[in-house]
Design a protein that fits this description.
homodimer; mainly alpha; 3-stranded antiparallel beta sheet; 6 helices; 3 strands
Chain lengths: 152, 152
Amino acid sequence: MSAPRWLSPAEQRAWRTQLALHKLLMHRLDRELQAHSLSVNDYEILVNLSESSGRRMRMSDLADATIQSRSRLSHQISRMEAKGLVTREECRDDRRGTFAVLTDEGWDTIQRVAPDHVAGVREHFIDRLTDEQLDALEKAYRPIVEHLKELR
Amino acid sequence: MSAPRWLSPAEQRAWRTQLALHKLLMHRLDRELQAHSLSVNDYEILVNLSESSGRRMRMSDLADATIQSRSRLSHQISRMEAKGLVTREECRDDRRGTFAVLTDEGWDTIQRVAPDHVAGVREHFIDRLTDEQLDALEKAYRPIVEHLKELR
């Protein structure tokens, strides 16, 4: 094995800044969503379902879309079922399994919470970057996202 | 209240790319660390302790450094204690509480694992960005990190 290629100081700064940015941002958005008794994970699931045809998704597709394991998603959906935000439905014609379905209460919740959440995303992230920075960010990260999706 | 300022398509792309990048990257690095029976959270704690004077940190400082709640950190440290990687030490002269201390086994572990982990960070992130992109990333995100730290 060759000697490890340690990160340079500039590489280390960039790496640690990316990690800190994400953690602090999720921590903040989680706190703001607590006012609506939601977490960022809850919110992400509500958004995915609300944008899907019939406001429903196969559990396997929802796990892919939210980048988590089936078992972690299953626990998350159980907690959201208990709050009345989603239900599970078995599909009889389709052996590929269970759907998660947004309830009317889930739909009302995402409609009510979205304006506050988007204001937080703007205040703590989007509006602190120029259009050029946002564009550069997407161009830099998009190929990495594609690479990592292929590895899954 | 004024009408919500929804994200533009370009803003939405940048935001979702940042979220996906982080999740996929942590998922991948977690998988690679599993070969060493560690998670990215374990690794981060080992790094922080190994870089600290006396290989020890106050629990409150370690919670700040790793951006998590005291209670979450406490659970994490208990799991790492069970693996022999860290111990807790009460400080008699100092009412400010408990220290987390790296064990010799914890120190050996970080020395052994670091080359693989840094190779993964390079392969899946750092080496896919130019020096200019890394610099731009740090310049864009650093002020946001400062803003979010002030809010904590």
